[in-house]
User: Fold this.
Amino acid sequence: MSQIQDRFTMPMPDDFHAHLRQGAGLSAYVRGHAGQFGRVLLMPNTLPPVSDAARLEAYREEVTRALVALPEAERFEPLFTFKILPGMRGAEVEASARAGAVAGKYYPAGATTNAADGPHSFDEVEEALNAMEAQGLVLCIHGEDPEAPILERECAFLPRVERLLTRHPRLRVVLEHLSDARSVHFVETGPENLAATITAHHLLFTIDDMIGNSMNPHLYCKPVLKFARDRDALRAAVLSGSRKFFFGSDSAPHPREKKECGAAASGVYSSPSALPALVELFDSLGSLDSLIPFMTEHGAAFYGLPRTSRTVTLERGPWKVPKLIDGVVPMCAGRTLEWRVARN
Ligand code: NCD
Ligand code: ZN
Assistant:
């Protein structure tokens, strides 16, 4: 791989964290991942939430209808999660596992988009966590304390994760969308059953890109972008080759009018541009060698899934990211990237 010149083929990446929404938007948003990602772990914070087996089955049908409308070669495999709600019973977790869920998602109450119904502590969902541990399901955590100041929210949540890991030593835990150098250290030095996803936007941007000169609401997400030292710690985690870190885009589309308004929704629509933007970044860092296992191996290994057999080809060449895709401003909108997905 170190001899990469102008074109190369890699296994199709996995995206272990994405929002496809529901209803009218969903059929458009599946196209963001199409032809670029092989498997996508779908977050359950839809309206209504995917919180039980029946909702999961209904969501699977909705996603499948949108996928079959795509050309066969562009379809990805959807992986399903359920939202962990306060007081959830072990039997409900078992039913979701039977319906095909690979993970449950913990959103602290009020931490992010559509999370008002979340638990206030892990104690409120102890029975569900015990069932998940017994079933071998992965626990995905939005690790932010909404009571803490905005830039401290992720770090403030870490002690709770530490206690959780002590109480549930066999539970596989993924801290989602890491944004802070202190959390990178926490994951690096944590037990084997603790891993983390990292997004493209947290690898590419800092808070100054969002609010340093003018305010760019399209880079506003939870957890918010932090400082260069945090971005660099995230890059170093990928460059290190540690199997604890893998890609999750947290692609989270919101229509332009929900972003360009007085109370912007949080979320970056990154799926259309994440792969070429990361290839450009890691090519410039001279380390496509580390990007490829980060996007294609580590997550599958942690989730116990086989490696994908499909491939995607990237080529050096200008690609202007559209300013608007299906009513949403995507990550890197209007910028010309140096790499693009080769469409045969
Ligand atoms: C996500 C969304 O819009 O659903 N928003 C975000 O800012 N990342 C939810 C989430 O993952 O926090
Ligand atoms: Zn998310």
Observations:
- The pocket of zinc ion (ligand 2) is lined by residues 17, 19, 43, 250, 252 (CB under 6 Å).
- The chain has a mean pLDDT of 97.
- DSSP finds 13 helices and eleven strands in the chain.
- The CA atoms of residues 111 and 146 lie 5 Å apart.
